[in-house]
# Entry
Amino acid sequence: MLYQIYYNKLSALVTCRNLFKQALSMLFVLMFLVFSSKNALGQDISVNRLTCGYLVNPIGVDFIAPNLSWKLESSKHNVMQTAYQILVSSSQANLDKHIGDVWDTKKVNSSQSIQVKYSGAKLLSTKTYYWKIRVWDNYKNESAWSKTAFWQMGLLNAEDWKGAKWIAFDKLADSNVNILPTDGKKDKFNANNVLPMFRKDFSVTKTIKKATAFISGLGHFEMSLNGAKVGDDFLAPGWTKYDKEALYVTYNITKQVKKGGNAIGVMLGNGFYYVPPVKDRYRKLKVAYGYPKMICRVLVEYTDGTSENVISNQNWKTDKSPVTFSSIYGGEDYNANLEQKGWNVPGFNDGNWKSSLIVDGPKLNAQKEEPVKIFDNFSAKNITSTINGEWVYDLGQNSSAIIELKVRGKKGDTIKITPAELIKEDGSVTQKNIGGPSYFSYILKSDGLETWRPKFFYTGFRYLQVKGGVPTGKGNTSGKAVIEDLRALHIRNAAEPVGKFSSSNELFNKTFKLIDWSIKSNMVSVFTDCPHREKLGWLEQLHLMGNSVGYNYDAAPLFKKALQDMKNSQLPNGLIPEIAPEYVKFEWGGDMFRDSPEWGSSGILLPWYLYQWYGDKQAMVGYYPMMQRYINYLATKADHHILSQGLGDWYDLGPKPPGVSQLTPMGVTGTAIYYYDLKILEKMATLLGKKADAITYSKLAVEVRKSFNNKFFDSKTNQYATGSQAANAMAVYMGLVEDKDKVAVIDNLVRDIRDRKNSLTAGDIGYRYVLRVLEDAGKSDVIFDMNSRSDVPGYGMQIAKGATALTESWAALPTVSNNHFMLGHLMEWLYSGIGGIRQAENSTAFKNIKIEPEIVGDLTSADVSYNSPYGEISSSWKKTGKEFTLEVNVPANTTADVYLPVSVNQKVSEINNVAFQTIGSEQGKTKISIGSGTYKFNVK
# Structure
């Protein structure tokens, strides 16, 4: 009995023990699952693409409070950021320990993930700061810390140059300096100038931690260290209004500096700093700030905590370079026999070189936009001979480019290469439409295969005509130099591409490429009109083509640079001239090429567009005084609130050759822009808390609107002015039309287009607004019909005539530029219309997205994407019979409304059963509300 009791108790004890062990085991499993689940959920949201001032890991930052941004990624749907924490550290070691000794925001409850203003400790010149971020989302997930990002400060004060001096080979006489020449004035003198090179030896005796170069060279420089080029940029630094500022560039040269002897080498070109007055070379203008000059500080930091500086001064040696001629317009000449072997390596004997000359220089600021770099390269598609024994290379693509020449020959053989966009009937090139003579010239040194690229000149071309050499494989009875290879190297600003477009319509695909090549070819350190004849920053393109550029390239820093160029070029009376930087004053036709509201208004509209596209308020704040001065200037020019000066709807399609507006009377476009400026200024003033200013602009806008309608609106016909496409469209877009008349005015616009068999007449100023009004009115079918033909002036005709880049005239006239930026407005519709990627009203930076693809004409599919400040937005749709599918991607931390074409008896489903909310219908389309993630909708 006792045994039985003992046995039962023992058994119970064992059972309890086993149960305890099982429970404990289960607890461990549960804890593991919870921990793993937490980790898994946490990993379901990540932070990437950390940017400082729009750039990834920038160096040479001179913002005292830079804006920081990041993007979120998650495989879940409907993800929104609810909080963030930023750590900024003075060292990588501190950051690895999660110590934000420079700035620790702690946990901030906010959905803001772009344009977060730095608010930590004071930032110091040349110092590198390391940062990372983590976020929390609406699912209560906490992300892992992002990968480390960094930025390095530039030189914030003049004292930070540590005594570095501007140095030169020679100084231009003060009497020959001309910072704003008047077009057509005769030269005071004619002479070429020396293109110098500089060198400086220095020694390193300690272990290097980091080495940084801060350098500017005007007009342009190429720096080398120990015989190797520094950086991969071209035409550095960006060009500016040099009497107001010059830009410097920062390079990390740690890997190029070595223990022992080192040598810095710098070559200079003229750029827009000096256009040499040489009679037999083309010049669009005659600006002369001075002869080339440079300034440099190299900072070498050692592992023991000490540092040394190498600064430019009179101890640097200088001599003539092998570049014997350099002009931003006229070309570049190079004599290889003048090369001095080893000039930029340590130990070179520079005894015959002279000491540098100390000169004055402009104020210096860091270059904030991306540099110009080399991208595509084009080899000849066809090589033909001309009657006079020269050779023409057809490279197949008209682009902004330089050449790369590979040649063998005798010492002294000279190769002359003439670039052109077009060829004559006999097959030889013509420069009549781009300005000439402008060419590349190379003199051989007879050293086997010689390879040459120009350093300080670019132009726009498709064809190259060669004199003095024979292509390899061709007959060469006269023993000329043999051209082993000749190709074009496309150069452009290195702004990152952010957009893609393709569709079932091949003409639209070709049109996309046509416009894209004109954007790329005119996006350098200024948005130029063309890459050859003028290379000038005509300002109307910025606000008219800004959205087209924005869908394709992350070019915000370049747009902001354009604002600074405008500020530097603004006149004391408030006028923003039509060109910025302003290097020339055109007086043909009075001041029509200097004072046109449609051009200068970029100074007001661009800050607003930067806010809309990127959420960037800084431009509004920083350039508000410039905007005020300009709007006040326009008020002084207005006659009863009507502005009639300028160029009007430039290059519209009238009965005469294109030029000043023909179909739309002067006063219509200028006053419409004036009114729009006032309404945008009212919005910006309100946003910035300037209530009195907002009221003032609002009241003036009312008066301008009244005057505009009194002067230009015909209430009997519901037409504005002559009833041109530009006049009616701009009146509607700018909000000048009374609500009761709006439909009738739009109907008149459509009727004019239809009556002309779907052809356009609007020009540089009006055409964007024609497209915007038609799209907003749900009439993308009209846009499709206008741009689907090749028999009338337009994109189709340009392509049919063989254009490979957008041309200056709608009809691709051979007398004008065949690579021009200004008429590419359809690009915006390819994204916003065919792709349907738009911004919801009152949204900024595509925080709230509207996806409404236009299924018009014979389109059966499209695949379009835009990498917005929050992440990639994509719209891919296909129509087959009565079925329609749309796949969209909405980035984390954003929402979207999707509009689907749903007919009677059709239903909408999401193929992967992802939940969505149907809100209702608008204009025959079903409206669906969704959060972030990928969706595939089916309508059948």
